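Data deposition worksheet. Section B asks for the primary sequence of the deposited chain exactly as it was used as input, without tags or linkers unless they were present during the calculation. Section C holds the resulting structure in token form. Section D is free text for depositor observations; keep each observation to a single sentence. Incomplete worksheets are returned to the depositor.
Section A, Depositor: J.P.
Section B:
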Amino acid sequence: MGDIKNWSKATDREKADALLSRWSELSRKREPYLNQWKDVSRLIEPNAGVFDIHKHNDVRDLSYILSFEATFDLNILASGLMSGASSPARAWFKLQPTNPEYADNYEVIQYCDEVQKILLRVFSMSNTYNTLHSMYRDLALFGISADVVYDNYETAIKHHLLSAGEYCVETNHHGDIDTLYRNFELTTAQAVKTFGYENLPKEIQNFYDKGQLDQYWEFIHAIEPRIDRDFRSATNSNFEWASYYICVGAGNPSLIRESGFNYFPVVCPRWDTLGLNAYGTSPAISCLPDVRQLQQEVLRKSELIENYVKPPLQAPSNARQQPISLASGAINFTQNTSNESQIRPIIQSMGDLNALRQDIAEIKADLRRAFFVDLFQMVQQTAGDRRTTVEIYALQQEQMLSLGPVVERVQNECLGRLVNIAYQRLLDANALPPVPQVLQGQAVNVEFTSVLAQSQKSVDINSVDRLFSAMASAGQIVPEIYDRIDPDGYVDEYRDRLGVAPKILRSKEEADKIRQARAQAQQQAQEQQQALMQAQQTQSLMQAQKTGAEASLAMQSLDEVGGGPVL
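Section C:
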């Protein structure tokens, strides 16, 4: 950290100076992105972003926005990602063992299903879903969002969403964000409640003693990998990630709290990024030229309409000496009615209003495409086209391909980290059911089953249906084709792609037992049928023998009555 080689032996003042130096360097790297963030905030969503922490409860300026098309499209995209990737109304993820050998183990499936329900309940009880919706909006607006996840006694986790402009981040050699610095302000009362009276600088204590509780003070919070760690210590000051709070607004910078985390407690997704860049780009940043042009043309349209309604007029010079009323029905007395004395528009052509309206409509259509509005309003957009359900589904799948990389990044950098953090918190608190013996010491993977995730996975599910249909048709001519079909594999593959809950289907072991019992029942029925047939055949044979014997006795009786055979 900084120029300090032995961090654990540095004084608090040396640590504070090094952390401030690090904050200055990260702020310098953020500066080019900060200018873009200010532009998209000013032109699209003025209430987003914090670019001056010293302004409190300030009213944002809306005068730069003459058309809210981009703002409206931004909200649709954020709502679409919320309902499509992490809807609170349905399960949007499931847990699976890392080892595929245990994927069909019913005990493992039951454990993963119970843990999933507990995690979903924790997300519903906390402020997770409100935070996620805001994060999606910041992602589409600034290309990055940051959320610090804290412990909470009542709801297990608590989210603190940060605004663009109040934090800086840095990546590791893999391109993953592992460092976050943020600056903020607290009042005297808030600082005492947060850090404790005895841990604050003397200046803040004096203000508190005087009852001046509304004075603001600046702080910096740093979360980063710990570089000088004692692995033998179990205290949080030797955890893998370090957490530092520095007070910079009360005299000399001072370190007021040092602790740590066993994992990076920050969820910091990016919309799209290049290489090891810490910050990402976004649809709003990409659309800034269109947004500027739209605002400019809306202004020109308003001016043009104003000129049509109230055009600039020319009047005779002698009209200066007498008042002229332009109100409807007004009577103005003039000395003569010659053309030179008439009041009329000074120009005859104001401009092509229809051409301006057409260009504005095209810009708005471009913005809707850039914010994926066509994807999330597919049914509404095609309402008058008389399209079939299959055609709408095909169009949606085509649009989904363009959103695929974004969905993948959101799952990896946002939702996956969120599930892992919550799972680790519950595991540390012994709030989860006992881990099955086969899963002891093994990790559990997160698989996403949201609408967007399933749409990505089921892009080629029609191919599976076509294959199965073709084999069914060909099997009527060549029955040997049926030997290639694995019923269990077909069911598992279809269930996995559609994200169906595992409890709906029996396990393969249970299905094998049912099949074995059915086979035994069929064999017993066949044996009983064969025994019945044999009994019937035996009875028929005995009946025939009896009939033959009776016929032979009858012939003998006739012979005796007739006195012997007739020659």
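Section D:
The mean pLDDT is 83.
The first strand starts at residue 93 and ends at 97.
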